[in-house]
Amino acid sequence: MGKIFVDACMGKDTPYTPVWMMRQAGRYLPEYMAVRAQAGNFLNLCHDPKKACEVTLQPVDIVGVDAAILFSDILVIPDEMGMDLSFVKGEGPKFSDPIKTQEDLDRLIGADEAASKLTYVFDTIKLIKEQLSDDKALIGFTGAPWTLATYMIEGQGTKTYNICKKMMYSNPELLHKILAKVTEVVKLYMEKQIQAGIDVVQIFDSWASAIEPSNYDEFSWKYMVEIADYLKEKYPHIPIIMFPKGVPAFLDKVYGNFDVFGVDWATPMSLAKEKLGDKYVLQGNMEPCRLYSKEQTTACVEDIQKIMGGKRHIFNLGHGILPDVPVENAIHFVKEAQRVSGK
Predict the structure, then answer these.
(1) What would be the CATH architecture of the domain defined by 3-340?
(2) Active site residues
(3) Where are the domains of the chain?
(4) Which residues contact 163 (CB under 8 A, 6 or more apart)?
(5) Which of 111, 185, 192, 259 is 20–30 Å from 75 (CA)?
C-alpha cells in the first residue's frame, strides 16, 4: 500500500522524503498522448478504466515517482449529477446548462445516485491496484465544493468568477445550497474511492484564491473540513491532503482533522512551516516552471530541503506540471528530491 508514502502523510518517521507531482499524467508524456488519441477525447479516456489505468501508471514507470495519482477529472462529479459536460478543443470544459436558480439546482440528482454512477472511476482504481507495485501508494482526489461550484455556476473556466461571486454576495443562500449538495456527493464519492482501494485522499481547491480571505472559511474551507471529518470518522487510517491554491493570507486560520497541507508555489515554504509545520505534514512547493531548467530544479529542491530542516515533508510541485516540460527534466526533479532526502 505504499507504506512509506502513507506513513509520511501521517507524519510518521520514514527512511526518506517521498516525491510525486501534481497532474502526473498529461501532455508532457508522449505515451499519454498516444493513449488519449486512441480514446478519441478526454471524457472517453476518463470513462475507460483500462486506458485510465494505463495513463495513471505511466508516470510511475517512466518518471519514477513514489505515488500514483488516479487519472480522472474533478468535473465527473457535476457531470454525473446531471449537468451536460463537454470538453471543447482549445477552450476547456463547458457546461451547457449552468446553475443559476433553485430550479436548476433541484433538477440535479442526489448524492447516492450520483456517486453510484461513477463506477468507471472505482473500476479504474481496482485495475490500478492490481498492477501498482506494493511500494507505491495510490492517491485519489476530488475538487473542493467551491471549485466544482464555480464551473457549475459559470458554465466554464473563468478568470473573474463574476457570476459565482455575484451569487456569493447577492444570493448567498443559493450558493450555500449548491455547495452543500456538492459536498454530499463528494463525501460518498471519496468514500467509494477508499472502498475501491485508494491509499490517500487529496482535496483540490484550485480556485481558492478567488475568495477574499474574510469569506474563505464560509464558502470553501468549512465544506472541505466537513468532507475530511466525514472520511476520518469512518477511515482514520487514510491520510487526507488539503490543497487550497493561493491562500497565504489564510494560513493562520487553517484548522481541521486532516494530515497534509499542500503548499502552492506562490506561498513561501518558510511561511507555511512557521504557521502550519507543527500541526500538519507539508507538501510542495516547487514552482512548476523551474522544471524547464535542471539547474533551477536542483537549486529549488535543495532550498526546500534546507527550509524544512527535518520537519515531515512530501516533495511535490506547487501546482500542475506543464505540457511542454521535457520528460527528462521531470525525471531529474524526482531523482534530485530523492537524492537530498537520502533515498
Answers:
(1) Alpha-Beta Barrel (3.20)
(2) 23, 27, 36, 73, 151
(3) 3-340
(4) 98, 153, 154, 155
(5) 259
